[in-house]
Amino acid sequence: MISTYSTLATAVSTQAEHGGQVAVEATGIYSWTWLLIAFPLLGAAVLLLGGRRTDRIGHLVGTVASSLSFVMGVVLFVAMLGEGDAERAFTLDLWEWFNAGGYQVEVSLLLDQLSMAFVLLITGVGSLIHVYSIGYMEHDERRRRFFGYLNLFVAAMLLLVLAADYLILFIGWEGVGLASYLLIGFWQHKPSAAVAAKKAFVVNRVGDMGMVLAVASMLAVFGSSSYSLVFANAENASTGWLTAIGLFLLLAACGKSAQFPLQSWLLDAMEGPTPVSALIHAATMVTAGVYLVVRSAAIYDLAPDARTAVVIVGAITLLMGAIIGCAKDDIKKALAGSTMSQIGYMMLAAGLGPAGYAFAIFHLLTHGFFKANMFLGAGSVMHGMNDEVDMRKFGGLRVAMPVTFATFAMGYLAIIGIPPFAGYFSKDRIIEAAFAENWVYGICALLGAGITAFYMTRVMLMTFFGARRWKQSEPPHESPSVMTVPLVVLAVLSVVGGAGLLYLTGDIVQWLAPVTGEAHHDLPMPLALLVTLTLLTVLAGVAVAWGMYGRKAIREDVPAGNPLTVAARRDLYGDAFNEAVLMRPGQYLTRSLVYVENRGVDGAVVGTATAVGGLSSRLRRWQTGFVRSYALTMFAGVGFVVVAMLLVRLP
Amino acid sequence: MTFPWLTTLIALPALGAVLTALVPSGRGVLAKQVALTGALATLAVGAVISLQYLFDLDVGVEAERYEWIPQFGASWALDVNGISLALIGLTVVATPIVALAMWREAEPDKRDPKTFFALLLAVEALTLTAFASRDLLLFYLVFEAMLIPLYFMIGMYGGPQRRYAAVKFLLYNLAGGLIMLAAVIGVYVLSVDAGSGTFFVPDLVALDIAEDTQRWLFLGFMIAFAIKAPLWPFHTWLPDAAAEATPANAAFLSGVVDKVGTFGMIALALPLFPDAARDFAPVIVTLAVVSIVYGALLAIGQTDMKRLIGYTSISHFGFIVLGIFALTGESASGATLYMVNHGLSTIALFVVVGFMIARRGSRLVGDYGGVQKPAPKLAGVFLFAALSGLALPPLSTFLSEFLVISGTFLQYREAAIVATLGIVLAALYMLWLYQRTMTGPVQAGNEDTPDLRRREVAVVTPLIALILVIGFFPKPLVDVIDEAVEPTLTEVDVDQPGPLAPVADETAEHSNEGTEQ
């Protein structure tokens, strides 16, 4: 506890020093920021409303729309590099949304260092995935619609990160939720896909309760939900309220980012086409929760208890996801567990406050590269294997699919954190920051790194090494270049993305400091020792996996496994818990209410109605006269009563 | 004298109803065309009137007052403010849409459609009168009178249990109306005591009524409005009426006509009995929250699509009532906006379900499955209506629901927190319905479901457009509503909670005081 409070003191002082960047009204090129959103939104409108006429060119329209947005993003980024360090925030008011009871919300955008990073990630990785999907969805008769949804997603996600008001952010927040719903359930004829889509949406809505209450609290405390007013006045609010807002926001973040206890939807979401898993459920949308926490730095800086909750959620999820990832034989689900776990890292870092915000974002970006890379790689494998996802039926694919293998390997080395691959730079810093804060956090993060190495090595070995376990007569084929080119680009980013980002931004911490503030802590041990320790843990994870899956032949049936493996296969009983605690009682409650409603509440009235049952048939006979006589009776009645009352009252 | 816009607004549909009824039997199409023309003409007049309020164009709309029964001080008094304007707008927009939606609904019974369409216009005229009237007696008479055409619309054209549903509808609402009658007379007598007997609402608002008396009168009004709205536990007529009435009729009933109840709450019950409203607010807030959760849970448990939508309406009416009685600017403006948006979204839902029923001949969820495959446009429109039903931003329903919740949070934190459960449950009942009917393998009997026809596209397009436009650009509408809500709340005189952490330039001491929870 003591250390938490000392951090707070540092946080507050550094915030004052670095976080005080004042956003100016956008002029020049920045006043065109809205185009970022407009391109993909227009693309979505054309594709979804254009009907069959756009079938033939749909994928091109979608890809161009997304790419234009990326070009715009690069232009803005270059322009921003030319500005002073703390003069990189621009606001753009588009129109006044509403003003009710004194609560005013502008549709306005905020382009600053933080949103810029996201814009590049979303449009860059997004465009690559559009290109990849041209090949992946080639034989799907609803490909145009698929690209329409993808464009809709990109537009909503950009709105989410560019909004300058929590309520506008919420529009993007729900928009990506909708896109996610539509894309998870893209193959609607499969009941499992439809169920998974609904589950994702409903679980996210639980998180949305947090979002709605967070904004409602802001209204109560600040009378506004715009970033500028909320952040500027945060220090006038009581710690109790700030903690409440922080916890509400955390609930929202848990839903969107599949963090404990709202993690259960993400594994099912793998029902969606693989490019969707790569873009939405790995690289971008699921990281929105991390964005939310980092964006709300001004609130969390002053609410240490809320930050502790963020760290705990992150630590639990990072271990949980890693453990689940170890036990899955479905390659996409193994990667999904990994995504949960990596986002857990980001959450943990974000919960550390100014010492960790920048690292959270850094890891978010590199993760976007290497996880999208690996998901698309998995998609490429599935493409060559008739949509098989069971790794027990893979094996030895490195020969048949050399490009996929090579690119996947880059992602693999990046995620387990081998220097100088991208993940090394970002994950190591989180582990350092965690140790600097607290031994327990540090050990969780370190342990996670070891488990990550284990399950990723397992995926690698089961898929690309060992004996061929596939049965199909045709050998698996490498994917067409429209799919492998994006893989190669992402593989390059997985290799140089970490060092590259540090170079481009002149150290990402400095880049983000005007938004998030920064703070440094002393490590409890020499840095070299910690780096060595981390690498040893990673190597240990690799070695154990090699011992279990590299040296021995992989069984095609599923071994019984120990209790932990069994639990991990069942997602650590997340679904079982939900079913026992929420669904079953909910169903019971609903059924009994329906029963009572039909027999109890309504019963009394039905009795009366039956008593006058004869009435209706009689009414039918004098239908024509009835209207008039009813009106007359009513009117006469009114007159009579009024007269009576007047007479009584008159002296 | 200026042109009597408001009287014209009411006279047009009334005239349309008469003309429709006069069309000779057997000329069904002509009758429908006459009715549709009447509805469109009313829409045009309504559009002119709203120009003046929404966009500040002076077209000469003024309050109207003509003597009616001078002995009682009753007059034909009409006026419009932001609240009534919003609802008049909803009514005039909804009527032609509903007319077009029910184009073929009279046919399975081989009944003459002209009566159905004439009754629709009659209900429109009465509903418009209720929204525009500034005379309590006039309001009361149309409040009761509209039961009659509705009774016949349900009872003559509905499903197999239509008589039962119609009688139940009538009994419930009549009972409420009679209680209200007593209260209306009570108010009148008070005005007599105070000097001159009148039913003119502004004069009645100015009366100084003792708090005890206010409570009784308030209850008299509220019971009638709570049955109409409907609020738990007075709601049980609605699911039956929604299920048995034809889809378009159900749409008009719960989308438009029932708003007279919530309109009565905010436009009559609050300003007439401010002290009582304040006293009873916590009780009503509780009932509203129960409605929200109860309606949603019951909706989840339904197997009949129209009953299901009926229960979602109960949940949504809970939000509206919650917003009104939380008595904050945000919540009351949100509630009024909610009345409009719930109208649009419920009409869309009922109408689309009506399209499905017209194809398959069943109201049961279980008879559908995989419809998106043969009829993707139908499924798309259904999903849009469902998303609007679950208040997805930026669809128009979102802003109203959010304003109600956040505005309520300022006064009743617990109630607001429980009400947010509604947003989870809404996702559940809407998307589960979509999942069961539209997704999965195509269920037997649905293979040849035809996709949307031209008339059906014409029905849903304006609804979708309005839901989007109000969602993206709600400001003109919210502004006029807010302008009208503010004086109402001033009347009730509840402290409007300001921000707890005021802007930095206030003294630190003050802000510390304010931030104590």
Automatic annotation (TrEMBL), chain A:
Organism field: Haloactinopolyspora alba
Cell location: Endomembrane system; Membrane
Domain NADH-Ubiquinone oxidoreductase (complex I) chain 5 N-terminal: 97-147
UniProt-listed Gene3D superfamilies: 1.20.5.2700
Transmembrane spans: 29-49, 61-82, 114-134, 146-173, 211-232, 239-258, 278-294, 306-325, 345-365, 399-419, 439-461, 482-505, 525-546, 627-648
Domain named NADH:quinone oxidoreductase/Mrp antiporter transmembrane: residues: 163-452
Keyword Metal-binding: no
Protein name: NADH dehydrogenase subunit L
GO cellular component: endomembrane system; membrane
GO process terms (BP): ATP synthesis coupled electron transport; electron transport coupled proton transport
Entry-linked InterPro entries: NADHpl_OxRdtase_5_subgr, ND/Mrp_TM, NU5C-like, Proton_antipo_N
Keyword vocabulary terms for this entry: Membrane, Transmembrane, Transmembrane helix
Record flagged with keyword Transmembrane helix: yes
One GO molecular-function entry: NADH dehydrogenase activity
A Pfam family matched in the record: Proton_antipo_M
Topology with respect to the bilayer: Multi-pass membrane protein
UniProtKB/TrEMBL annotation, chain B:
Domain annotation NADH:quinone oxidoreductase/Mrp antiporter transmembrane: ranges: 133-424
Keywords, sorted A to Z: Membrane, Transmembrane, Transmembrane helix
A Pfam family reported for this protein in Swiss-Prot or TrEMBL: Proton_antipo_M
Membrane topology: Multi-pass membrane protein
Molecular function in Gene Ontology: NADH dehydrogenase (ubiquinone) activity; NADH dehydrogenase activity; ubiquinone binding
Ranges annotated as biased composition (Basic and acidic residues): 507-517
Region feature (Disordered): 492-517
Compartment annotation: Endomembrane system; Membrane
A GO CC term attached to the entry: membrane
Keyword Isomerase set for record: no
Ranges annotated as spanning the membrane: 6-23, 35-55, 83-103, 115-132, 138-157, 169-190, 216-238, 250-274, 280-301, 308-327, 339-358, 378-395, 415-434, 455-473
Taxonomic superkingdom: Bacteria
Record-level GO BP terms: ATP synthesis coupled electron transport; electron transport coupled proton transport
Family named by the database record: Belongs to the complex I subunit 4 family.
Protein name, UniProt field: NADH dehydrogenase subunit M
Native source species: Haloactinopolyspora alba
